[in-house]
Design goal:
The protein is mainly beta and about 375 residues long. Helix content is about 5%, strand content about 40%. The protein is built from 2 helices and 21 strands. It starts with a helix and ends in a 16-residue tail after the last strand.
Length: about 375
């Protein structure tokens, strides 16, 4: 049969097999396909063979996909030999020319062409203040809320404002020091220098001659100068000791609070421009720790309420606990302890700078005829 003869032919390449398939396709179209039942007629066309049914020989078939190739062995690269010497001398090659120096960017590259530049000095002829300044430009006309609108704000040393021409109110702050000035800007590059008459104030406090009081025991408040106390303005509050506070030059009242009861002292201090003023305030008070005991050196009884009064009966302080501690100003006091509806009291004198443990005995019972107190535990 023709089918057998075609299959018995020698192995052709992909091109010959494809041509046979394409030749058979038109014949099938003209003859109407193979006879029913799949039997070939003697004079009919040969059998149709799908290209996928053709045996594939890896050595001869090419599908258009590059066949994977084994990696080639990479031979080491030989390094160049040193340059030979000519008549025993090294080659004198020309040196590489140096690059031309590049111009450095100007520091004022972002500065507006027509700007208002402001700087501040410590005093009229003092040094320039390089940092820690706060600049504020205000409009001279009040807004709808009655306040001057803020036009621009800057922080640091020198300030540069890109604002339209006009009149402004300038306030520059340096800590608690500051100055206000009117600025008339014409729209062209303008430089203004503001003198701040400021100095520093550093405060300390002592309750004795041996040591300074620490920040957990003493705080300072600074008030402006005034003839009447009600006219004084609070400038700074809760200032710890040893910290430099920047203030305008002038006189101030300093209030030192030792503890939080009644140990308070006051002093008038003058701040000089361009310098730091150190002020040491004397505190007249001491810290007391109280306990209610059955005998000297005994255990403190719990659930005890305490009241401290003056000898005239004015209440000074109240506390609850087995070991209440407080700072009291120098003077005489009456210490009252309450435990299980029983009252004990004793008088005590506070001496400045001498901290003490104060014991109230159960024998200090106000009503000796009352029953004996329990343990309180």
């Amino acid at each position: 049969m023709r089918k057998e003869r075609w299959l018995m032919r020698p192995n052709w390449g992909l091109v010959s097999a494809a041509m046979s398939v394409f030749v058979a396709l038109p014949a099938l179209a003209q003859q109407g396909g193979p006879p029913p039942g799949g039997h070939d007629e003697p004079d009919g066309p040969g059998a149709y063979a799908s290209p996928s049914a053709i045996p594939k020989d890896p050595a001869t078939v090419d599908l258009g996909i590059p066949a994977p190739q084994r990696l080639k062995r990479l031979e080491p690269i030989e390094l160049p030999e040193p340059l030979p010497k000519i008549q025993g001398k090294d080659l004198n090659l020309p040196a590489i020319p140096a690059f031309a120096p590049q111009p450095q960017p100007h520091l004022d590259i972002a500065r507006p062409q027509n700007a208002l530049t402001l700087r501040a000095t410590l005093g009229k002829d003092g040094p320039e203040i390089p940092a820690d300044l706060v600049w504020r430009l205000f409009s001279p006309h009040a807004g709808g809320d009655g306040k001057l609108p803020v036009i621009a704000v800057a922080k640091g040393g020198e300030a540069v404002f890109d604002v339209p021409p006009g009149a402004y109110l300038l306030h520059v702050g340096y800590g608690r020091a500051g100055v206000t000035k009117r600025i008339d800007f014409n729209g062209r590059e303008t430089r203004e220098t503001v003198a701040i008459d400021a100095g520093g104030l550093r405060l300390k406090a002592k309750a004795s001659e041996t040591s300074d009081l620490t920040s957990d025991k003493v705080q300072f408040d600074i008030y402006s100068e005034a003839t009447e106390d009600r006219d004084r303005r609070l400038v700074a509050s809760d200032i710890p000791p040893g910290v430099v506070i920047r203030l305008n030059s002038g006189n101030y009242q300093v209030v030192s609070r030792y503890g939080d009861v009644n140990a308070v002292s006051r002093a008038e201090v003058r701040v000089e421009a361009g310098r730091i003023t150190d002020a040491v305030m004397k505190q007249r008070g001491a810290q007391l720790t109280m306990k209610l005991v059955r005998e000297h050196g005994g255990e403190a009884l719990a659930d005890t309420a305490w009241s401290i009064t003056s000898t005239q009966g004015d209440l000074i302080q109240e506390s609850v606990g087995a070991f209440p501690s407080m700072v009291l100003a120098e003077g005489d006091y009456v210490i009252v302890a309450r435990n299980k509806d029983r009252i004990f009291q004793r008088q005590f004198h506070v001496e400045s700078g001498k901290d003490a443990d104060v014991e109230v005995l159960t024998s200090d019972l106000v009503d000796p005829n009352s029953p004996e107190i329990g343990t309180g535990d």
